[in-house]
Amino acid sequence: MPLDTAPAPRSAERSRKTKETDITVRLDLDGTGRADVATGIGFLDHMLEGFAKHALFDLYVRCDGDLHIDGHHTTEDVGIVMGLALKKALGDMGGITRFGHAYVPMDETLSRASVDVSGRPYLIWKVEFTRDKIGEMDTELFREWFHAFATNAGLTCHVECLYGLNNHHVVESAFKALARACKIAVTPEPRLGGAPASTKGSLGS
Fold this sequence. Notes:
GO molecular function: imidazoleglycerol-phosphate dehydratase activity
Number of domains: 1
Number of helices: 4
CATH superfamily: Imidazole glycerol phosphate dehydratase, domain 1
CATH class: Alpha Beta
Number of strands: 10
Distance between the termini: 32 Å
Protein name: Imidazoleglycerol-phosphate dehydratase
Shape: globular
EC number: 4.2.1.19
Mean pLDDT: 93
Largest sheet: 4 strands, mixed
Strand order of the largest sheet: 1-2-4-3
Radius of gyration: 16 Å
Main location: cytoplasm
């Protein structure tokens, strides 16, 4: 499916416009990892392209943000809209595996992400940087994206860099680990027969 056409099953489009950003996201959970991303922040584009590739999601992002101020609103708001798109694409979350985790190495770095598609948002972020910027992007903004994405998608999300030296490798392995964990968590489990993977009989708040 072209990234600019009507939604397919397990796909969604969400838009959000404020005085700070104007964002449209299209997300297909059963894609092939294609990405068409333009946020105005080159390094963020690079991370989101990697996220799509390793989650096997098809992802379209357009953001017009107030980058003349800084990258904060763009980064956080893109996370918000991507999270909303994921939540919408999952519907009632029936029949999905629900839990996913992944370890991703990148040269000297090893990161781990664990995800519960529970409808109960929470982020544990144990990732540290030794530089203030990577490219033109402030390193403190990476947590803002992860927090916004997890909160709006309804994910319990634990992300850790177990060890690493190169800051680029640290954050890239974190995005890729999240991608792989999400891929596993949203994969349908046929034995559930469409029912939610919960003893309560439902997922969500």
